[in-house]
Amino acid sequence: MAASSRRSVSGKIWTLATIIVLVIGVYTGGWFYAASLLKERTLTLLGSQEKAGVIAECSDAEYRGYPFRIGLFCSKVSVDDRNNGVSAVFGGLRSAAQVYDPKHVVWELDGPSEIRTSHGLSISSQWESLQSSLTAKGRGVERSSTIINALQAAIVSSATGQTFNFAAANTEMHLRQNGADLDAAMTVTNASLTGANLPQGLPALTTSADVTLTGKAGLIDGSDRNVSLYGAEGEIRNLSADLGEGRLISLSGPFSVTADGRINGKMKLRVEKLEAWKQSLETVVPGIGPMLNNATNMLSALGGGDRASIDFTIKNGKVLVGGFIAIGEIPPI
After folding, report:
1. Which residue, among 168, 166, 205, 203, has the nearest Cα to 280 in the 3D structure?
2. For residues 31 and 70, is the Cβ–Cβ distance under 8 A?
């Protein structure tokens, strides 16, 4: 009787142990599957779209965080867009997601980076920190946020021999699928651009953009293979530049781009502190005073005082005030 009881207890222990081993095995398999999805989603955000000829690679890939976190570490990330002749190389990548919420991924990317195009353009960048998060949907990306601190970039064109240097204290970008549309918002704080042929001495400015691109939600999940703006349309809710001390200029309105790059739209331009803008530009662009005086007087008459608000139309690149008075032309993009 005692021997039978011991066999019964022993059998239960072995059954429990087997169940535990099976659970651990299933959990481990699920963990590594989720880790592979983490890699796929992270590289998708960095541009990997193999069907469109864009390949992103993670060198020396290593998974960490088992059992409660899922982490992907790479010593280097490279992106190759064969169709458009663009290649990029970045430093180390660290990404992670919680086991209970694998669709929410946070990641960091190290510099320096090097981006080259087949047209002879090269962009070398470095930053203090680049942190991002994304929310996955299916096998794509539904939304993402990125913050870059102390960005510095050198832009070189071998075709023209020109070199520009760009710097920004902080850069913040947000992308979100809104049904079939793509909402994009970006703010660049204390930005400056210098170069041999550019005006010198202009104060650092803060720029921001809040835009919706109609039917372009697939740009962040890889389902939209047309990454250009040709044929695109949408709305600029706000596009602004701020020099500080109340010197603000902003633009808003619906727009569209034709297949050959011509811009159309109905825009509203707002300018604050007209006189201050004029003085700032006069100090950095010698000889521009008479033209600025004419522009300031016209804007002041339209808006009243030291501010202006103007509605204008863009038809195939031609800028029209009042529907028929041409004041300029925007070249094709």
Report:
1. 203
2. yes
